[in-house]
Specification:
Elements lengths: L26 E2 L6 E2 L24 H14 L21 H7 L1
Length: 103
């Protein structure tokens, strides 16, 4: 059994009236290419991760850095990485200006 990362939404807005659980959703395993249901969530990023900077749901620098590292490792072509330090940075961490000097 192998672990893989999936970018998904808690609420997909396509299901009515009930949202399927993660175990009920169909995913494709990148290791064996099998498409099926029954996958289990082992670790889940905070919903606020892709919302940064956000004054109400701010993330600290350490937590944000952890999830950026996961994103870089598993999704190196993510368009969010191009926004790192420009329009995407932790609200609870460095300021936008400080991020420009680090990226």
């Amino acid at each position: 059994m192998a672990t893989h990362w999936v970018i998904d939404h808690d609420f997909r807005l396509e299901s009515e009236p009930d949202e399927p659980t993660y175990e009920e959703r169909t995913y494709c395993c990148p290791h064996c290419r099998k498409e099926s249901t029954g996958f289990q969530v082992e670790e889940k990023s905070p919903a606020a991760f892709f919302l940064q900077p956000h004054s109400m749901y701010s993330m600290g620098q350490k937590e944000f850095d952890h999830w950026v590292a996961v994103l870089r490792q598993h999704f190196p072509d993510s368009p969010m990485l191009a926004e790192l330090g420009k329009s995407w940075y932790p609200a609870g961490g460095l300021t936008k200006r400080a991020w420009r000097f680090l990226t």
